[in-house]
Amino acid sequence: MSEKNVLPSEFLFIERGWFSANHVVLLGDEAPVLIDSGHLLAVDETLTALAAHGVDPAAIGLLINTHGHSDHIGGNARIKMLSGCPIGCGPLTAKWLRTNDRHNLWLESLGQVTEIVMPDFVIEPESWVTLGGMRFEVIALPGHGPDTIGFYQPETKVMICADALWQNDCGILNALIHGPQVLDDAQIALDRLAALDIEIAIPGHGALITDVAGSLDAVNRRLESFRCDPTKMTWHLVRRIFMFSLLRYQPVVQADLVATLLKLPWPHEHAQLCGEMPSGERWDAESMLEELVARFLERGQARLDKAGRLWSTVQR
């Protein structure tokens, strides 16, 4: 069975890439329910993708955000303008949006842009909500974002898990923003997912997860490796932020990309946690970024065009 036919007919899964989050559309009611609206800088692509799957953005009846990162909330303003739909999210996301908490939303550190739209209502974890004519249990999934909520539908055994679980991976864990307990929080989220009878998990990025147990096992092993060597957690984070940045600025000359990123806090904040260079010296921000470029080119995750500009080879 192909991925597009795995889900029950009430669910529409639109896979994006690693710059803009996936979308889930629930089709059981007269008005579609959209979960996560993608990145502001890809909002036109979002509207095109929805229309290509038969969903009129102006007809959306409800928009839900799983958490407050820019790649999940960036289309809120445009979709609300087109449809007039109310927007719901978890209590922490609502608090951060209402107070323009750019630190916890990762906007300052990562140099992100988005349009802050005030939520219309709050969805409490450990409650039940009806979306698209189906009942969902709301599950708190901390770790990648302490504000993350997921949605479990017990009859279909489908779990909308945002960035708490990807296929054999998970979203980055940012201890500098959310504290050293992020590893414990991520473990709590995995344990909550493992306690549910899930046949299909819908991640915030990447393909549908049909081997849920296998992905949970892979992420459990990853978290254990982070506990044994915290520098691995830092490299996991900076690789993915760098990939996200390359997708944003491509095509770009390497020196220009490095110069742009050095103006942001995150390379300086995280380089000091990357351990030692082969020379025995501590990593600095510029050396770390140069190393990331070299690794991406070596592994085929980036390429140079004839003009010497960098492109990502992963799906935007």
Count all strands and give the number: 14
- Summed up, the helix count is 13
Radius of gyration: 19 Å
Helix content percent band: 25-40%
Tell me the β content.
15-25%
Gross geometry: globular
Order of helices and strands: HEEEHEHHEHHEEEEEHHEHHEHHHEE
Q: Give the biggest sheet.
A: 6 strands, mixed
Poorly predicted runs are none
Strand order of the largest sheet: 1-2-3-4-5-6
Average of per-residue pLDDT values:
96
Give structural notes:
The structure is a single chain. The protein has 316 residues and is of the alpha/beta class. Helix content is 39%, strand content 17%. The chain has 13 helices and 14 strands. Strands 1-2-3-4-5-6 form a six-stranded mixed beta sheet. A five-stranded mixed beta sheet has the order 7-8-9-10-11. The protein has a three-stranded antiparallel beta sheet with strand order 12-14-13. A hairpin with a 2-residue loop joins strand 7 and strand 8. Helix 11 runs antiparallel to helix 13 and helix 12 crosses helix 13. The chain is globular and about 60 Å long. The two termini are 26 Å apart.
List keywords for this structure.
316 residues, alpha/beta, 5-stranded mixed sheet, 14 strands, 39% helix, globular
Write the layout of secondary structure elements.
Blueprint: H1 3-6, E1 11-14, E2 23-26, E3 33-35, H2 43-52, E4 62-64, H3 70-73, H4 76-83, E5 87-89, H5 91-98, H6 107-110, E6 121-122, E7 128-131, E8 134-140, E9 149-153, E10 158-162, H7 175-178, H8 182-194, E11 200-203, H9 212-228, H10 230-249, E12 252-253, H11 254-262, H12 265-271, H13 285-298, E13 302-304, E14 309-312
Parallel strand pairs: 3-4, 4-5, 5-6, 10-11
Antiparallel strand pairs: 1-2, 2-3, 7-8, 8-9, 9-10, 12-14, 13-14
